[in-house]
């Protein structure tokens, strides 16, 4: 069973705009074998929310997004977008539904022979809208995406970030209620990524657009998503509010994907010395997670005062996840009988989650100074 936590954000509707019920998808390969790309997917994207699906390469992310716009069909299960059951529609009906579903891509997919204006106008031309209406709508979208000065430039004359802005404006041209984002920032540098994610967040808030995005980067989820689903080998192994999943990851793959993002990794030199077994004199290393109001607690001082256990701070961060404070601290404990059990009981009693990372040889633990 995947770990599943309910939606707790009052801003987000309880009614899903996109839903997957018991969806599985296999591909036949040329070698006459089959590949299970998705299995038993249950997923709901509440109207007005941003849901991020994260997973490693080959986890099934692209397949999931292609099922939403009907580019792939499931073997079993149902996929709904609004009132339409995508999995049951013929091609003609699908085309109608797709008008309400915009999509942006990693490599932008712009027409090189058209200017920014021309690319954004294209979906409206296909719909047969009048010239004046098209002009007015495109001007509006150029302003929304900050592209007024680039309107006559061609894709080859635009930066990656500008190209993606054109992609976003084009996706919004026909006024969709859903935006699908397929690794939309993976080809961009970190600063441009932040700007594009901020634009998407603004569009979500201001236009009430529901966004389903797939990514392999936790930083993207953290910057924009309300909820996250973690895919591994075609299955959802964990889903829930971003703060919940980030601060209490349950699945191993989630922990691994989060390690760099959350300052959960130890300094490399220490990590290299960390062993699994408590050899004689070795110091246990704990990672303590501080959530919400506890993020700034002087917990190490209290641990010493109340239990006599003097922990040594190895590394630590205080940060914000989904607008709420979150801290993470790695400490080494002095060797001794029951020290780990007593320290963890103390932390537990104070509502703090701790993980035992391993053991450091006595010397390197003593050499560390308080950060
Ligand atoms: N058309 C296809 N024919 C056969 N197998 C496929 C096809 N498309 C995808 N697969 C397989 O299905 C699984 C899921 O692929 P998918 O592209 O959905 O993963 P992904 O998470 O998007 O990966 P990436 O991040 O590398 O794009 C993989 O094992 C892949 O090899």
Automatic annotation (TrEMBL):
Top-level taxon of origin: Bacteria
GO biological process: amino acid transport
GO cellular component, one term: plasma membrane
GO MF: ATP binding; ATP hydrolysis activity
SMART domains: AAA, NIL
Matches recorded under Pfam families: ABC_tran, NIL
InterPro entries on file: AAA+_ATPase, ABC_transporter-like_ATP-bd, ABC_transporter-like_CS, ACT-like_dom_sf, MetN_ABC, MetN_ABC_transporter-like, NIL_domain, P-loop_NTPase
Presence of the UniProt keyword Translocase in the record: yes
ABC transporter domain residues: 18-258
UniProt keyword list: Amino-acid transport, ATP-binding, Cell membrane, Membrane, Nucleotide-binding, Translocase, Transport
Role summary: Part of the ABC transporter FtsEX involved in cellular division. Important for assembly or stability of the septal ring.
Matches recorded under PANTHER family: AMINO ACID IMPORT ATP-BINDING PROTEIN (PTHR43166), METHIONINE IMPORT ATP-BINDING PROTEIN METN (PTHR43166:SF30)
Family, per entry: Belongs to the ABC transporter superfamily.
Name of this protein: Cell division ATP-binding protein FtsE
Originating organism: Methylobacterium planeticum
Taxonomy of the source species: Bacteria, Pseudomonadati, Pseudomonadota, Alphaproteobacteria, Hyphomicrobiales
